[in-house]
Amino acid sequence: MTARYALGEAADALLAVRGGLAVLVAEAPGRTAVSAAALWAALAEPQPLTRVLEHLTSAGLADAPEFAIVELDGPAARVVVRGALTVAVERSGAHDELDGAGVATWRESLVPAFDVLRIGSPVGDGLPLEAGVVRARGVELGAPGSVEPNGERNVEHGAVASPDSSPLTAPTLVPLSSETLVQHALAEQLFEATIVRSVTEAELIGDHDGLTVVGASIPGFAERARPAAVEAPAAPAAPRFVVETDQGVVEPLAPAVIVGRSPSASQVASGAVPRLIVIRDNPDISRTHVRIALEGDTVVVTDLHSRNGTSVRLPGKPPQLLRAGEATAVLDGTVVDLGGTTLTVRSR
Amino acid sequence: MRAQTEVTVGSAATRIVVSAETSAGAVRPLNEDSFRAAPPLFVVADGMGGHERGDVASRTAIAAIADRVPEGSTPTVDELLAAIGAANDAVRERSERDGVTGVSGTTLVVLGLVRGDSEGSAYWLAANIGDSRLYAWSGRDLRQLTVDHSLVQELVDAGTLSVADAASHPDRNVITRAVGVRPEVSADVWLLPVVGDQVFLLCSDGLTRELSDADIAALLREHGAHGERPTIAQALVDAAVAAGGSDNVTAIVVEASSPGAPEASDPGLASTRDRLEADAEDTLPRAPEPAR
Prior knowledge:
The complex is a heterodimer.
Chain A: E1 3-7, E2 13-18, E3 21-25, H1 36-43, H2 48-56, E4 67-73, E5 76-91, E6 94-100, E7 107-111, E8 116-120, E9 127-129, E10 132-142, H3 152-161, H4 178-191, H5 201-206, E11 213-214, H6 221-225, H7 228-231, E12 241-245, E13 250-252, E14 256-260, E15 265-269, E16 275-278, E17 290-295, E18 298-303, E19 311-313, E20 320-321, E21 327-330, E22 335-337, E23 342-347
Parallel strand pairs in A: 14-16
Antiparallel strand pairs in A: 1-9, 1-10, 2-3, 2-10, 3-4, 4-5, 5-6, 5-7, 5-8, 8-10, 12-13, 12-23, 14-17, 17-18, 18-21, 19-20, 19-22, 22-23
Helix pairs in contact in A: 1-2
Chain B: E1 2-9, E2 12-23, E3 33-38, E4 41-48, H1 53-68, H2 77-97, E5 105-106, E6 108-115, E7 122-129, E8 133-137, E9 142-144, H3 151-157, H4 163-166, E10 174-175, E11 188-193, E12 196-203, H5 205-210, H6 213-223, H7 232-242, E13 249-258, H8 272-282
Antiparallel strand pairs in B: 1-2, 2-13, 3-4, 4-5, 4-6, 6-7, 7-11, 8-9, 8-12, 12-13
């Protein structure tokens, strides 16, 4: 499962994601802090939901923290929530909320199907998390089968939040004091031969007024600046896809197209610049309407907050209206309907 | 300098008036900025490295791009991006050949008309590496299109520094991407439609360090399209030098007029929110579909 979360600070909730399970545990002053390592380990055991519950209530119910647990089971989700935490369930535009208020233990519910589950504060342009433990103010979980919206800004953040190097460490910001930054830069400069060797020490510290310095050697920043698209090219074995308009125009997904009446693309990595498809003479279509992209070996369609929306028709399925800004995975043969104008996704 | 050109891509003609100016500023002995205003391609490069290395880097980068994209030509997206890649290679090769031990590199901001894939279509391609910027001027509002690759921008994005405090942050000169420093460099790229009348400003940070967006907007507004002496680029650079001129200053102002294209109500799209607002004006709602 991929979660999107709003980065929190030390006093914020602990979010753990592993396999089909996500756990958000609120911190409370005076209470023993929940161990990230223990939580992470519990998620790897058989019957992880039970293990996590046991762990969280091990100090007795009175001392158990507030928490929310989501376990995915096919299209359904088992939601366990204790205390004032709220799990919002979005389904086809309908909204429902689950919380554990007024219950001495916890509330357990089965959500048969959902589009998005939201816990805690809104995540906005949240950071993606596939697996790991982080500090979070809020988290959003998409239904299984949906794909993370890959907004251009998120691509960069994705590189930071990627937990594979040390899943137990919350992503922390680089220290803000300028002194520390300069020291980091200097340390790299002095002790590593391969990195960018910057200006002399005297210049770096003494002349901040107008001297341009490359900070790529500052830990964290270089990683962040490197776009994910360059690091993760489509697998060579992946099927090749094209998009065909109803006017017969065929564009390869290499890796993306943006379709509209007068389309534009904002801040994309130079290795992943989309092709623009202009649809003329249809006033129902927004200037920049929809993005169709190959991500890995999956084709995803994202409505770019168009005025009239976009629907997709998977082979043999009824049309489905897309939620604006959310990437939806589609199959070969899917028809993308912009309202009077259609595009077809084909493999070749 | 000031030049006037007409560029035709397919059936559409774009008339371009450009003015460009650069100055070492009031403090620095050397001007390490370079620019190229060869319609329909415009580039500003702010070199760094000290001891003339910055000057060499910015000039080398621009020469590499000029080699790949001759004046008056409209490259494809891939060709223009390849030219930026070639600039990175050229600066690295030059540093190696000269035996440079310290860091030598340059920022780059590029605006160029590119050829689309079909039926003579054309777009503006904008790309940046580092903290040189591209702005769009609507005649009323000045909007920064590019996002700096700088430490302070990272801090602003992370929510730990306000935009107001960024201007005075002690590390505001630290950039996180540059041309000619690493074997590969990735630019951030924008593709913008060619519509009606559009005005763009490309500049090095020497301009934006001395003049606020409001100052720049006021100068653009006062200057209008008439003043040929001094040119608008000259007026901007002079104002930045008069305001302190602590760094090299470069400005290119591009006024493009494409009568065949629809009127510009939105010269450049900076964010999804802007796009939302823009689209709210331009598209008629379809009759609501019956609930499923």
